[in-house]
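In this section we walk through a basic example: taking a raw amino acid sequence and producing a predicted 3D structure, encoded as discrete structure tokens. The instruction is simple. Fold the sequence below.
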Amino acid sequence: MATIEWRSPASEMAVQQFDNAAAKLNLDSNLAGRLRRPDRAMIVSVPTRMDDGRVNVFTGYRVQHNDVLGPFKGGIRYHPAVNLGEVSALAMWMTWKCSLVGLPLGGGKGGIACDPADLSRHELQSMTRRFTAEIINFIGPEVDVPAPDMGTNEQVMAWIMDTYSQHKGHAVPEIVTGKPIAIGGTLGRREATGRGVVYTIMETAKHLGIDLLQCTAAVQGFGNVGSVVVKELANIGVNVIAVSDRTGGFFDAKGLPVAKLLEVADKNHSLEGCPYGEKISNAALLELKCDILVPAALEMQITKENAPRLQCRILAEGANGPTTPEADAILREKDIFLIPDILANAGGVVVSYFEWVQDLQNFFWTEEEVNKKLRDILVKAFHEVLNMSQKHKVEMRLAALMIGIDRVARAMLWRGLYA
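The resulting token sequence is shown next.
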């Protein structure tokens, strides 16, 4: 990703993180050179007929970083800020994430530069189906398996599955994960990422000797991840004092009524107009005094500018790449316990893996089985990262990256270079 095509703040951050871990691992320079850039990157035009009759040409991306451990796996994001550099960074992080939690999958990511809130259902479906057709020769159940991400959901996955299946002439539910239950989705998938964040918070609290019943939390982002984090934290007795989404945030030092917040978001599709608590900005939420802070929105929210003002004890990264490397150094000095993104938010890809496996074998599990398997995997991964951190005296992010990168590198050495 050193060439101009990949250059973006997110891709540069992902490569910097990789280089730090590679140096600590004394990684072979030839391997490092291969892992700094993706195996394949696609930029596609997505012409879409809008409701007023005009044709709008959107730009779509699919980046496949590394598949040495198994098929590429990663979400599809619909957001105005989507670009090649961001998608490349997200694909790289997916490679390390899958490796860290022991999945036989590689890292991929995709997206379309658009604002889904501005599109009608018909426009959204047309754009999704054309995008699927544009990348159809590069995805497949044994090749690359997309999933939902920011701005997409189970309906978008259903359209992708149907488009792919129509081209193949038969139903292929295993082409995507995060689908509706009715067409091969798995129980527990929608809640998996947020639920996984809370599982890692619970393990952290045990490690630090913290009573969660006495803890306060602030959550930035109230989409699929953030809203589930808020609900699950409240269920285990944590007092949620602040939440926010793209329209702004709300704060009450005594605690917010979580059930009512969820009702507002469900009704309005955002927190806008929420009557509970004092209105605050997304930036202000990050600096509130709280025990647990969960950034669950966009990348690069915690920087060298605001990191000195963070007042949390535990920082659990529900989003991908919310903390810059410069901020990481400041957080270490402040003794904030970091649960890095590739560990904290890995629940989504873990349960996506479960869904893919269930579709392949046409045998489905109960939600209780899904949640137990998810928790077992994340607890194991948490303690592997913690042990690596303590053994090598490095922060949790570097420890997690070292584990994930080392496993991929070892697999590459075994497989060799086809040239």
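Looking at the output, two observations stand out. The first helix runs from residue 9 to 25. The first strand starts at residue 40 and ends at 49. In the next section we compare this with other chains.
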